[in-house]
Structures are given as C-alpha cells and as structure tokens.
Amino acid sequence: MNGVRVAVLGAGPRAVRAGSVEQALAGGAAAKDAAAKVLDDVEPQDDALASAWYRRQVLPGLVERALEELR
C-alpha cells in the first residue's frame, strides 16, 4: 500500500490526517497493525452522536476495514 494517505473525519471537531497509519503502511505493516496507530493521531471527542470512548473503540476497526478494501 505504497503512497496511501489516510484522514479521519467525524471523530472530532475537524478532519485529521493519520500520519502514523501512513508511516506504518509505508514500513510494511499489516492493515490491522497500521490501523491501530490511528489513535496516535486522532483524539476522539464526545458529541450528541457518540462518546469519545465509543469512537476510540470503533475507529481502529473502521480504519482497518477501509485499508483492507484497498487491497
């Protein structure tokens, strides 16, 4: 997955680029391992739709699924 760019929106007040995920992928990490890095870049927040706790639980899995779809 060379050259993949990852951004997250909807988890906080603004979109954030997930450079840690990109670096992990560039280093040859599997999608699951790279996706786990997303929380290094994104600090989920509470809002009327979901809690920060819930977003922390779900976000790595969503990123993993998106990365797997690129294969």
Note down, in words, how this protein is organized.
This protein is mostly helical. The chain has one domain (7-69). Helix content is 51%, strand content 6%. The protein is built from four helices and two strands; from the N terminus they run ββαααα. The protein has helices spanning 19-26, 31-36, 38-41, 52-69; strands at residues 7-8, 16-17. The chain has a two-stranded antiparallel sheet. A hairpin with a 7-residue loop joins strand 1 (7-8) and strand 2 (16-17). The longest helix is centred in the C-terminal third of the chain and has 18 residues, at 52-69. The termini are close together. The mean pLDDT is 94.
* Structural class category: mainly alpha
Strand fraction: 5-15%
Q: What is the count of structural domains?
A: 1
Strand order of the largest sheet: 1-2
CA-to-CA gap between the ends?
8 Å
Oligomeric state of the chains? single chain
The H-and-E topology, N to C, reads as EEHHHH
Task: Please give a handful of descriptors for the protein shown.
single chain; 71 residues; mainly alpha; two-stranded antiparallel sheet; 4 helices; 51% helix; elongated
Task: Briefly summarize what is shown.
Helices cover 51% and strands 6% of the residues.
Helix-strand layout with pairing:
Blueprint: E1 7-8, E2 16-17, H1 19-26, H2 31-36, H3 38-41, H4 52-69
Antiparallel strand pairs: 1-2
